[in-house]
Amino acid sequence: MDYARIVLFSIGIITSFYYYWKHKKDIYLLCAIICWLSPIYVGGLNLRRLFPSEIQRKIDLISLFFLLLVFIGTFLELLKKEINDKRKRG
Questions:
Q1: Measuring CA to CA, which residue among 69, 66, 16 is closest to residue 40?
Q2: Residue 59 to residue 22: CA distance in whole angstroms
Q3: How many CB atoms lie under 10 A from the CB of residue 66?
Q4: What is the 3-state secondary structure (H, E, C) of the chain?
Q5: Tens of pLDDT along 29-78?
Q6: Contacts of 38 (CB under 8 A, 6+ apart)
């Protein structure tokens, strides 16, 4: 297993969460999710293959939760903006 890759992506996750906390922009949260998904799913040295199937399912659920968190938040923000625009027009 490539430990340097795990360390680099962990630093990326921490940095992205820090910038998200500081600036409240979803792009930083998406970067953190990409840093989470990359060592787990991508490449021949992925971490997911090392775990039993029960833990793999939990990893899949956590990954899905992170993705839904960002996309639902973005969707609700856009929907709120559209409703406010409609109210201003009519």
A1: 66
A2: 27
A3: 16
A4: CCHHHHHHHHHHHHHHHHHHHHHCCHHHHHHHHHHHHHHHHCCCCCCHHHCCHHHHHHHHHHHHHHHHHHHHHHHHHHHHHHHHHHHHHC
A5: 888 888 888 888 887 778 888 889 999 999 999 999 988 988 898 899 89
A6: 9
Predicted model pTM: 0.70
Q: How far apart are the first and last CA of the chain?
A: 60
Nearest CA to 35 among 60, 11, 71? Answer: 11
